[in-house]
Amino acid sequence: MSELLDLQETLYTSRNPTRRWLHRSRRARIEATLRRVAGQGGGRALEIGPGSGVYLPLLCELFESVTASDVEEAFLVQAREIAKEHPNLEAVADDITASRLPDDHFDVILCSEVVEHIPDSAAALRTMRRLLKPGGTLVLSTPQRHSPLELSGRIAFLPGIVQVVRLIYREPILATGHINLLTAATARRQLAEAGFEVLESDQSGVYIPLIAEFTGQHGLKLEQWIERRIKGGRLSGLLWIQYYLARA
Q1: How far, in Å, CA of 63 to CA of 106, rounded?
Q2: How far is CA 77 from the centre of its chain?
Q3: How are the residues of the chain apportioned to helix, strand and coil, as percentages rounded to the nearest 5?
Q4: CATH code of the domain covering residue 109
Q5: Cβ proximity of 70 and 133 under 8 Å
Q6: What is d(CA 31, CA 27) in angstroms, rounded to the nearest whole number?
Q7: Of 84, 147, 172, 222, which is the most buried if we count CB atoms within 10 A?
C-alpha cells in the first residue's frame, strides 16, 4: 500500500507536464468548489476515500469537524498522521456501500476519484444521500468511461507494455483499479435515483497518447486548447474527469 501513497503524491509533481496538469487542475477545481460550499465555515464534512489526504488540511480549515473514511488501512494511517496537526479530523474505517456512520449527519461530503473503484456505485451514492443532512452538499468527481486516458490505461498495463510505460515516465506507474467507469448519463441517473439534485456539472482534462509522453509543454498547450474547444459540446465525453455539485 505504500506504493499507492507514493503514486498519489507523485501525480501532483510528475515530470510529465500532461500528467501533472491533469491532476493539479482537478485538485484546484475541487478545492475552489469546497471553498464555495463551505461558505462562512462551520459544520461537519466527510471525505470518502481520502487517499494520500491532499484535501484533508483544507477541509479541516473550512469545517469544524472532518471525518475521513476509507476501507484501506494505509490511507487511514495517512489520515491519522494529518490529524496530529488537525485535531478536528477523525479517521474511521468504513465501507460507503454499507456505512455505519450516522444518518443526516454531514453538511458536506467530498467523494473524489472513488466511485470508479466501487462495483456498486449506485449503492454508494444512496448511502451518501443518507449520511447528508437535508439540503447538504455532495462534491463528486470521477473519470469518464470513454476518455482517451482511461481507454489508453487498459492497454498500458498489458504485460510487456507496462515496463515500457515505466521507462518513459521514470516514476511510479500502477494499475488504476478502475472497475466501474461511468458515462455522464449513468452518473446523472444514479445521482437522481439516490435522491440528489444536480446543481452544477462540468468536465475537464485532455490526454492524447504519445503527444502527452513525447512533446512536453508543446503537447500540453495543444491538449489545453482542445479542452477549451470541446468542453460543453458533443465531444465532452472525451474529457477525463466529470464533476458534480449536488444537493441532498
Answers
A1: 11
A2: 19
A3: 50, 20, 30
A4: 3.40.50.150
A5: no
A6: 6
A7: 147
Q: What is the domain extent for residue 9?
A: 2-247
Which residues, 6 or more positions from 46, have their beta carbon under 8 angstroms from its beta carbon?
Answer: 66, 67, 68, 69, 101, 105, 106, 108, 109, 110, 131
Burial profile 56-85: b = 16 or more Cβ within 10 angstroms, e = fewer: bebbbebbebbbbbbebeebbebbeebbee
Which of 107, 81, 111, 82 is closest to 94 using CA atoms?
111
Which H, E and C letters describe 136-157, residue by residue?
A: EEEEEEEEECCCHHHHHHHHHC
In the prediction, which pLDDT does 77 show?
94
Identify whether the C-beta of residue 75 lies closer than 8 Å to the C-beta of residue 52.
yes
pLDDT of residue 6: 58
Measured CA distances, 74 to 69, 78, 79, 142 (Å): 12, 6, 9, 22
What does the block give as the cell for 246? 449536488
The pTM assigned to this predicted structure is: 0.91
| Per-residue cell: 237 | 465525453
Give the HSE-up count for residue 201: Cα atoms under 13 Å, Cβ half-sphere.
Answer: 16
> Tell me, what amino acid is at 74?
A
Domain count, the chain: 1
The whole-number pLDDT of residue 114 equals 96
